[in-house]
Amino acid sequence: MWRPWGNKKMPLRIHDTSSPFSCSSFKDIQHLCTQDSSASSKRNANVFYRVRIANSLLRSWGPARTGKITDSVSDPSISIPGAEKRVVVYFTSLQVVRSTFEDCKTVRSILHGFRVSIDERDLSMDSRFLNELRGILGQSNLTLPRVFIGGRYMGGAEEIKQLHEIGELKKIVERLPAAEPGTCVVCGGYRFLLCNECNGSRKLYTQKSGFKTCTACNENGLIRCPSCSCNFFFFCC
């Protein structure tokens, strides 16, 4: 502040510049820019690191590699015989667990975008799909979805989404033949039909034994469409 008029000496108050809120001078700009560029380089390094890990993961799935690998990577020895020319997806259409339903919906949407032949096996429509999947993977506690491409096990929702983000899923799927246009004229694309034996009632009547449960269909009174679905189970219940 200004010194007062007069001959009387007064103590001079000087502004304290040691406050933590003081502004940086122009000589600090170079230092700040260096910090920002180093943070940006760290982010770029993280992106390149994820891509490098994904590429090494794909190389480990090559046909020359056999045996067990890390828990975070799918086992390439797991496969479905006879499914070399299509995609097989085990999923559920029930919305009981929202996260599982959203994962199934996302994966199916990604795969349908490639316009290849997809064999969708809905566990909520036929419980025998569950026994089939358990037999293939050798596990009792399973999460959905599970995807096989060209007969080879690729993993679940996280693996498919990561491969799609880095562009590797397209390279894998492009090896498969394109799907035929249009929907199935037999089932209309639903992949299931009413049972011809019981007409969906799950009950049959004979004069000799009365009513009995129909064994030709599943618990919903449905059979798989013979035109667009596979007619065999790997592991029947």
From TrEMBL:
Lineage: Eukaryota, Viridiplantae, Streptophyta, Embryophyta, Tracheophyta
Domain Glutaredoxin, residue spans: 88-153
Protein name, entry field: Glutaredoxin domain-containing protein
Pfam families reported in the protein's UniProt record: Glutaredoxin, GRXCR1-2_C
